[in-house]
Amino acid sequence: MLTFSSLGGSTLKCTGGGKPLVIFPGKKTEKSAWKDAVALLSAPEEEPSKGTISWPGEYNIADVSLKGIGQREGQQVSFVAEVDGVHCAFLSGPLQDWTDHQLETVGEIDLLVLPQGDVKLVQKLVDEFDPRVLILVPDENEKLESEVLRACGAQGKERVSEYKLKGSLPAEGREIVVMAA
Questions:
Q1: By CB count within 10 A, which of 76, 82, 90, 139 is most buried?
Q2: Is the pLDDT of residue 126 over 90?
Q3: Bigger pLDDT: 172 or 74?
């Protein structure tokens, strides 16, 4: 079972694999949330601290396969992970358009974590990735625009601070989760 917990803003913690992941920790994210976890950073650091991944490339940590995909000439990194058999994509903000080559590199996605962004770009990315589960997260200012919610079919959905993927993925349609800040 995978569990996604909000740590504020667009930061999530994913547990259930070999090692917890803290996805795109913000300035407000407490260091205690990183304890015994791997932090995935959206911008490369020259000398990342222990337990952080901030560069494009392929990694295998505690039975979690990770792939960092560089955008904006490597200045921004999004990640793809296989956690407990589920193919997850964690797109970093600000959202960028993805090239055909980047989409091919990612392959099939079961679960997409998508931050607040331009509504047309959000809709395009959801269509391109076509995930079984879509998790919408607010931006670093803890905002999630109603146009984005409407475009994704999530208007009126209750915001949750935790989401658990129990058992298998939805067989048909798409499950949409709106995370609270």
A1: 90
A2: yes
A3: 172
